Amino acid sequence: xxxxxxxHHKTKVxxxxxxSISPMTFEERKDGAAEDGEGDLMVTxxxxxxxxxxxxxxxxxxxxxxxxxxGSASDGGLVDSEGKVRDEYILQRQSVNRPTKLxxxxxxxxxxxxxxxxxxxxxxxxxxxxxxxxxMSSKTNELNTxxxxxxxxxxxxxxxxVCLKLPVRNLLLKPNDNIMTASREMAADVLLxxxxxxxxxxxxFFVELAEAVREVNKSDMSVDEFTSCLIxxxxxxxxSVPNPVQGTLLSVSRDALLGLEKQRPFATxxxxxxxxxxxxxxxxxxxxxxxxxDGVKVLEKAGVVxxxxxxxxxxxxxxxxxxxxxxxxxxxxxxHTATLTTSDDSPPISVDHTVCDSKYRYCTEAVxxxxxxxxxxxxxxxxxxxxxxxxxxxxxxxxxxxxxVKIHMHTNDPDQLFDILQPFNRDPILKKEKVEDxxxxxxxMHGDETLDLADAKFTIMGLCSYVLPKSTYDxxxxxxxxxxxxxxxTQEPIDMRFVSDEDVCVLLNQQRHKDTAIRYTTAAPNxxxxxxxxxxxxxxxxxLLVFLFSADKRISATGRNTMVAIDMLEDEQxxxxxxxxxGWTFYEQPFLTEAIKFAEGGKSIDEAIEACKEIGDxxxxxxxxMTSSSVRKLMAWRPGMFPEGFTVEDNSFIAxxxxxxxxxxxxxxxxxxxxxMTVQNKAMSMVDLQDAEIARxxxxxxxxxxxxxxxxxxxxxxxxxxxxxxxxxDANVPMMDDVELSVxxxxxxxxxxxxxxxxxxxxxxxxx
Length: 768
Description:
- About 50% of the residues are buried.
- By secondary structure, this protein is an alpha+beta fold.
- It contains 28 helices and 23 strands.
- Strand 21, helix 27 (about 720-730) and strand 22 form a beta-alpha-beta unit.
- Residues about 1-80, about 85-100, about 340-345 and about 350-355 have low confidence and may be disordered.
- The chain is globular, with a radius of gyration of 27 Å.
């Protein structure tokens, strides 16, 4: 059955299916076994028994659907007869971090026999996209590197990968041989998952492709009919933006697919895939001459082709390589959520990342579930009017599908865009929001100010990748303690070090909606895991400074297990490890940044400890801005942190914190946790709460005191953090001339205890 596929593959491939897919792919085993991506570790997760909270081999938990019923075209499926997505479908499509049943990539059809495939159905469609995604995903780093237009924020590859990862995986989790069903479910998924300029435009392509397939109205179609659908989708690409730009993903996908028209008819799939690959390469090569900004051929000057167009070309190349048997095997870990990032096989590329700039800072997106009677064009016209007449942003991209619309824009004030969209949304909050700081991303990727700790006299371990900016992630001298997030739906720990910013955005948006929110807790690493991490840090032959907020086993299991792990070391190894306990829970940023500064300056580990001790004992303060719903969630999770009888008003905002001033008397470590939930201000809006806290900070500071550090960590809305810092400056809050100001988004920790739009600010106060 594997050796040959007749001209129309479907009949034979059903026999292949029985032999090529394990029963666990489509039917959940009764004992609920879950397998990791490598296939060498099996963990039984019985429904009446909780998984170990920390495994030696970190679980690579995947996002997936569970109990999702996908109907055929005859029963309407999850998209109704009018083309509207059912609400329950949206909720199920948003479900993430649940155990997957995708143990291996199913062979829905053998693309190496494409010379004999004359029709395209849902299974062929799925395998084409799996192959294209595999190739494009392997080039993520290259696509990020060559990203220069409209701004060199280094995220094209990541955005295109996020756009397709879950939608393509979903085609495999519940295969459907009806191409109308498969394509429209793909379209709905990319609408929810596509992000960034390139990801949003790419999602538009698949929405238009689904519409073209629907018009043919066949469960499977000839290769030439499928070609016609591709061409229609390409032609429709111009409608995704108000001002189409030549030499980009938009024009290359359009012109490459239009180029197929002259070569029709296509009788077999292999001829189509070869022609599409060649056409994409031809159009891609034109982009350096085509993309002109202010009279400058920016791609030619940078020495690259357009990154989004290159990503689309890789999709076509992956399909072609699969058809000739030259695509490497596709493994399930391609679709995992919390995985180590691996480099692709691309050679080093020299790129001028200064050729383009933007007067707008934030890459902003939203998904709107349209009210009854509201058309997509009404929404698009309102946004475009604000962009052209009021100048709120540029790089607008619009995608419509079913009863949803997605809007992408570069702006300096995301709230302006969200406020325009909310009246058209049928729910109290938008289905999805996303805000990224493009200037910060560009600086992190290509900036001149880079940390160099190669000559540091010690290395550092703590909550590094959870609380520090992305610019520090690649430093070999910084090591992050492994801590796990445990979703209530699976009880399977997710190693938080390996959860991407894109995944965090998905999770936070899920938590914004009552119907898709789930409860998360944290799980500590066991002593053996911690010993392994400590030994890895010690391989540099330098002393190791470990930061803990508590070593008391009653307060912190991570602290307790870290001390046990250190005790397991050899005597000579123990001498190299020093522990600093600061007592201020997850507010570790000022201590880590101080230690990094001392390490970069060639100072000793003891000097760094003294400086951190000074901050923790005398200079540390903070404000934590929370919603009443988050406070209640924290009260249910850690009731001991709150005084007896503590209550909170519905729909209110609360600021917890410490007096913002120096302390002459050292507060004992055991008392510090009890001070974290001290209420400082309450308000009925986040804006009013920020104003009240800024007034408090200014009032608390004594005449001889100024702020030397302000570190803001935001939950999804990084723009709110920058607004807060600007408000502090406008209010003339006393700051040192060389004050260190920083804003970054919180990672996966925020999913556990926080909510979208919240933030915290850590202050270091110095006497002058």
